From TrEMBL:
GO terms for molecular function: acetate-CoA ligase (ADP-forming) activity; acyltransferase activity, transferring groups other than amino-acyl groups; ATP binding. This is GNAT family N-acetyltransferase. It comes from the Bacteria. InterPro entries: Acyl_CoA_acyltransferase, ATP_grasp_subdomain_1, CoA-bd, GNAT_dom, Ligase_CoA_dom, NAD(P)-bd_dom_sf, Succ_CoA_lig_flav_dom, Succinyl-CoA_synth-like. Keywords: Acyltransferase, Transferase. Its EC number is 2.3.1.-. Pfam families: Acetyltransf_1, ATP-grasp_5, CoA_binding_2, Ligase_CoA_2, Succ_CoA_lig. Residues 17-170 form the N-acetyltransferase domain.
Length: 880
């Protein structure tokens, strides 16, 4: 949401405020705020006494936003409590900034919040720096400026400080904003997760109704604080006192649960707002898209309440200090360390039951439903501060702010696993493609790139989710991808080995010492290479000895132990005596067990691991855990620095005001400004003469038609190769004119490039997710072999490496060492930088890029510009 329209945001203590642009009609309030400043604040603001022209100053601050002026105000409970404004200095990209905050809210982060909104707006208008003159004594304001996270300088000495803040966005600033957002968000969600009192609005006396079930679950959960019910037809329900209306409640509840039909639910929400309720859970459905739903939105906005729902299962917290169950689940949620947020109530029910069957429990369960306010991003921030939650689970059907999600998920995943169920992967969600890059950049590809870069462990089904949770719950993360398989059934071992290789795991090479040790304990007919087949005749004790020998091998990172019971014994029963191994991951497989996954020893406190019914399931989980461990071991930031384009201002000027597909000559100029290598290129309009181009370029050359509707030039007959001599070039030009007729706009002429391997590099910008960088096989292979990888910009060096190694053909592509991998890596980083510097770049298609032993060069380019989305994904605000 834009600042001009106004947006709700959170102060450090969790209060909801409104931040919006100021206009002349706000002059009186701006004057009132300045008038009630303390004597000290007046001195700091005006470097002395209050000026006699304060009314004039207030009018100037509240002037209509324009090229040289902008001001924002912070409103709490409808009262203006803070103002920040900037005035652009003449003929510069600098602006002088000033701010005023009500003394009563000085410690709540009002000044910082206003400055963030000023920064966001200033960047959009092209400003480069904020400057301010501050009294040296005014340490609080100097600290506000210094703590913003911008590059900051302040003069030293004298009674005044000249402060300069560089507005260039960098990771330090974004991290500072995110940290402030997390602190404020966690404070606001305390009203939801640790309420001092709860009211259930709409709980009925009839068992079986949703409201009655929620009240029954709340009472049974052991919630230690006061509970009241709003029901005009009862004096008490389930022993809980009932009153006829929200206004009649004996105390103002901190949290209210609404279980009423849509129109009545909207009225109850409005009453809650007037009463001062801080958080709501709306179970009611049928609100979205109706007048009642709009009333709920308006009330939440007006009264500054946090809201879960509507149309949701509810919320559970198992915090022993304040446990409660505000859902209509059939069975209680087991306390535990797994946090769950889901848009689907059905998925929430399935997870609660499945985890309970495994003996695992939840720290929190939040069903967001129609997601009017509280979302997955809020829970990521809450769990970051909640040490009870050791594993986070997400089921998200949509992303409100995926770029913010990426940063939040990445930060949380550095300290504990984050799991997500993919949804919306079907072809119906894909957009029509205008280039090879766009064809590759489907919503599913973009979402998967988001998950991979953020360290999120993604699965496709709830069953797979339970598999991975079980694997994480009882075992260490594997130290690497080298897996050994030990089995007393040869077939099960072979299936496990095949599954490991399909999942990209490495079958470990057992050392000679290990093989000798195995030979001494196993029958002569046993196989002591990986996979190890102990034979079916061994006892449980011998199988355990063999497993210990394999675990002791330094070349083994993880083990899959597949066992079946035989007349000689049940080796599976001996696994628990071997566990837990030091720093090694072990998964058990028992083909034929009833449960898909179960603890090896139900109810045991030690010797526990996940036991799967199929080797493929165990291998799939192990592979996901290996990839997560590898992600954890990657550096969070690159030490390397890619040189910026020679003239970024020229690049920005080139992009300004452009829309649609660039003309070929303009697309080439874009690459030149970005420092991206492109083969020498001449463009000849269809109606012009080819003489100059034919004379300027050495033979042989290639001619490429630029014709309306011609996307794939080679397949459409729009490429003529190896044309030699001026006469042949003229003849080829005439051939293309004849072939495409009036559709021909012009012809690109280039010298034939040196031989090499052709790849594709491109960008597809999504208005929600941002730019996606695509890498794949190029040229004629693009359509024949759909082999591509994608990552969201900005790319780190590790992301570029993963793109290069992310193709099915990558191993063969780079195996010879004859192609310049470093040049391709640099190209990917430059393309990513271009997408950052030029947000108008909606689509870029470099295909083919010719890779040689001594570099790489683009042979063809298509680029499309469109007006970028104006919303700042990192500006702090709540959903509206």
């Amino acid at each position: 949401m834009s600042v001009e329209a106004g947006s709700r945001a959170l102060l450090a203590g969790g209060d909801v405020v409104l931040v919006r642009a100021l206009h002349p009609a706000d002059t009186v309030e701006v004057l009132a705020l300045h008038t009630r400043l303390t004597q000290e604040d007046t001195y700091f603001r005006f470097f002395g006494a209050r000026p006699s022209t304060l009314d004039k100053l207030a009018a100037e601050i509240a002037a209509a936003p324009g090229p040289g002026h902008y001001a924002v105000g912070c409103y709490r409970h409808g009262e203006l409590v803070g103002v920040a404004n900037y005035e652009v200095l003449k003929d510069t990209t600098d602006a002088e900034v000033a701010l005023v905050v009500d003394a009563d809210l000085r410690t709540q982060g009002v000044a910082t919040l206003l400055m963030e909104h000023l920064v966001s707006h200033a960047r959009k208008t092209g400003l480069k720096r904020f400057i301010a003159e501050v009294l040296a004594e005014n340490a609080k304001v100097i600290r506000v400026f210094a703590d913003l996270g911008l590059r900051f300088e302040a003069s030293v000495g004298g009674p005044e400080r000249d402060v300069v803040m560089n507005l260039e966005e960098d990771a330090t600033y974004l991290e500072a904003v995110l940290q402030r957002d997390s602190v404020a968000d966690a404070a606001s969600l305390t009203h939801l997760f640790k309420p001092s009192s709860i009211a259930v609005i709409g709980a009925g006396r009839r068992p079986g109704s949703v409201g009655h079930a929620i009240l029954a679950n709340l009472v049974a959960s052991g919630y230690p604080e006061p509970i009241e019910v709003v029901n005009p037809h009862a004096g008490e329900i389930l022993g809980v006192p009932s009153v006829p209306s929200v206004a009649a409640l004996n105390r103002t509840p901190e949290l209210a649960v609404v279980c009423l039909p849509a129109p009545a639910a909207a009225e109850a929400v409005e009453e809650c707002g007037k009463r001062g309720v801080r958080a709501l859970v709306i179970i009611s459905s049928g609100l979205t898209g109706t007048e009642a739903g709009e009333r709920v939105h308006a009330a939440v906005r007006e009264y500054g309440m946090r809201l879960v729902g509507p149309n949701c299962l509810g919320v559970v917290s198992t915090d022993p200090a304040c446990p409660y169950d505000l859902t209509f689940l059939a069975t209680p949620v087991r306390p535990g360390n797994i946090g769950v947020v889901t848009q689907s109530g059905g998925v929430g029910i399935a997870l609660a039951e499945s985890l309970g069957d495994l003996g695992l429990g939840m720290s929190t369960l939040v069903s967001t439903g129609d997601k009017y306010d509280v979302s997955g991003n809020d829970l990521l921030m809450w769990w970051t501060a909640d040490r009870r939650t050791e594993l986070a689970v997400l089921y998200l059907e949509s992303f409100g702010n995926p770029r913010k999600f990426s940063r939040l998920a990445r930060r949380l995943a550095r300290t504990r696993p984050v799991l997500a169920v993919r949804s919306g992967s079907g072809g119906t969600a894909q957009r029509a493609a205008a280039s090879h890059t766009a064809a590759a950049a489907t919503p599913a590809v973009t979402r998967d790139a988001l998950f991979e870069q953020a360290g999120v462990i993604a699965v496709d089904t709830v069953a797979e989710l339970i598999d991975v949770i079980a694997g994480l719950a009882w075992q260490l993360l594997p130290g690497g991808p080298r897996v050994a398989v030990v089995s007393n059934a040869g077939g099960a071992g072979v299936l496990a080995a095949d599954a490991c290789e399909r999942e990209g795991l490495v079958m470990a090479e057992l050392s000679e010492v290990t093989r000798d040790r195995l030979a001494k304990v196993l029958p002569a007919e046993a196989a002591v290479a990986n996979p190890v087949d102990t034979t079916a005749a061994v006892s449980a004790e011998v199988f355990a000895d063999a497993l210990r020998a394999v675990l002791a091998d330094d070349g083994v990172d993880a083990v899959i132990a597949a066992t079946v019971p035989t007349a000689a014994g049940d080796p599976g029963a001996a696994l628990a005596t071997v566990l837990p191994p030091e720093y090694k991951t072990v998964f058990a497989v028992r083909p034929g067990q009833r449960a898909r996954v179960a603890p090896l020893v139900p109810g045991a406190r030690s010797g526990v691991t996940a036991c799967y019914d199929d080797p493929a399931a165990a291998a799939a989980v192990l592979a996901r855990l290996v990839r997560y461990e590898q992600w954890l071991n990657r550096p969070e930031a690159d030490d390397e620095a890619l040189a910026p384009p020679e003239d970024p201002e020229a690049l920005r000027a080139f992009a300004t005001g452009r829309e649609g597909w660039l003309a070929p000559a303009d697309a080439v100029e874009l690459l030149r400004l970005a420092g991206i290598p492109m083969v020498e290129t001449r463009y000849v309009e269809a109606g012009d003469s080819m003489d100059a181009a034919a004379a300027a370029l050495d033979s042989p050359v290639v001619l490429k038609a630029d014709a309306e509707g011609l996307l794939h030039k080679s397949a459409g007959g729009g490429v003529l190769l190896n044309v030699r001599g001026a006469d042949r070039i003229m003849e080829a030009f005439r051939t293309l004119r004849s072939r495409f007729g009036s559709a021909l706009r012009g012809v690109t002429v280039q010298p034939m490039a040196e031989p090499g391997r052709e790849v594709l590099v491109g960008v597809r910008s999504d208005p929600v997710f941002g730019p996606l960088v695509v890498f794949g096989l190029g040229g004629v292979d693009t359509d024949l072999i759909d082999d591509r990888a994608a990552r969201l910009a900005p790319l780190a060096g590790a992301d570029a490496d993963l793109l290069i190694d992310g193709l099915r053909a990558s191993k063969a592509l780079w195996a010879s060492g004859q192609l310049d991998r470093a040049a391709v890596r640099e190209l990917l980083l430059k393309v990513s930088r271009l997408a950052e510097l030029v947000p108008e770049l909606a689509e870029l298609d470099l295909n083919p890029v010719r890779v040689r032993p001594d570099g790489c060069v683009a042979l063809d380019v298509r680029a499309r510009f469109e007006r970028p989305a104006s919303a700042d994904p990192f500006l702090r605000h709540l959903r509206d």
